[in-house]
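Contributing new records

If you add data, match the layout below exactly. Sequence lines come first and carry their own label; structure lines follow with theirs. Keep one chain per record. Anything else will be rejected by the validation script.
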Amino acid sequence: MEGEPRTLLRGRFASPGPGGARYELTLSRQGLGARRLEEEEEEDGGGGARPPRRRGAAAAAAGRASLPLRHVLACWAGGMGELALTCYLPRGGRAGGGPYRRMVKTFRVEADEEEEGGGSRALAERWATAIRCLLLGIELPEEPE
């Protein structure tokens, strides 16, 4: 009987640029999970237009995504506390253009996460290192308690 995968890292990130979407990312040995945060979950209250409300299973599925690590090609941390992933995702049965599509996604470390992790760049580096270790099959460094 197998339960939920053990979470190695969890944090809040945003899309780069003002007014970008906010996400809660979780990293496990199996993959990277992303959950888009609703405005009610944001501490600052946001300021943009509110998306239409969804109910039930549609609401749960609409804001969640899971990326198996086998689809991640590269991961790096930028100088401004950004985490970037290059992935090749299956096209899902559409004709033309090959079986995979390339996607690069960048996430910016949230300010409240910055305070806990010793700086946004250090936190982005920590995530990038953990993802690279998992991709290469290297044992992750232990966290000091």
